[in-house]
Amino acid sequence: MKRSFVFIILSCIFASCAPKPNPDVQLQLDVAQTVAAIPTYTPFPTPRIAPTLTPMSLSGLFCEYQFCIGHPVDIVFFDANAVNVQYNPAALSSVSEGKLAAYDPSLIIQLIWQDATGATDASFLFNTLIDSKLDSRSGDLQAFQMDGMDIDYIPIMTAASPSLPYGGAAAWLCGGRAFAWKAYTPEAEIAVNLLNEALERFRCNPK
User: Fold this and answer.
1) CA 166: distance to chain centroid?
2) Per CATH, which fold does 61-204 belong to?
3) Is pTM, for the whole model, over 0.85?
4) Is residue 136 classed as helix, strand or coil in its secondary structure?
5) What region, left, alpha or beta, does residue 148 occupy, with left being phi > 0 and alpha being psi -120 to 50 degrees?
6) DSSP string over 2-60
7) Which of 40-49, 56-65, 179-188 has the lowest mean pLDDT?
């Protein structure tokens, strides 16, 4: 019994003599344990934008300068004004005015457009597009409608290329601009078919 009592006394003495913990350290430990015990919220999932369907195939479709137009899939349009850019940087095509071309050994296509605010007829562009030194009209002017646009079409013959003696030219208005299209082809009926395919995919925004 005495031994037990002595042991208790000694334990109390040693405990009172033991070094006491730094209160600042103890406070930091308490704060860290409290923060670790705080429940966290599951983050909201990042919304993903679902891709939308393209209203028309991009294959064989030119879209720039706030309009789109179809063309054969094995050729592409390029800015025909770019050949003059080294002499006149302002010559590059723009929304208000421009010229495109596409060609391969069996086909040549040209497309021009310009501001036509207030105009009611785009046929004045025939004077620009049809080359009087190379092209000649081979039929009467034909007028028809497509997607609400009035289209004027003229079959032509050309001396531009011996392998492409035929062709056609068309003009129409859209969004405050006048557009004109011309093709040189190896056979007479090809041009109007190409035009119909191009116009089926034609769209324009107001300039």
Assistant:
1) 33
2) Jelly Rolls (2.60.120)
3) no
4) strand
5) left
6) HHHHHHHHHHHHHHHHSPPPPHHHHHHHHHHHHHHHSPPPPPPPPP-PPPPPPSS-STT
7) 40-49
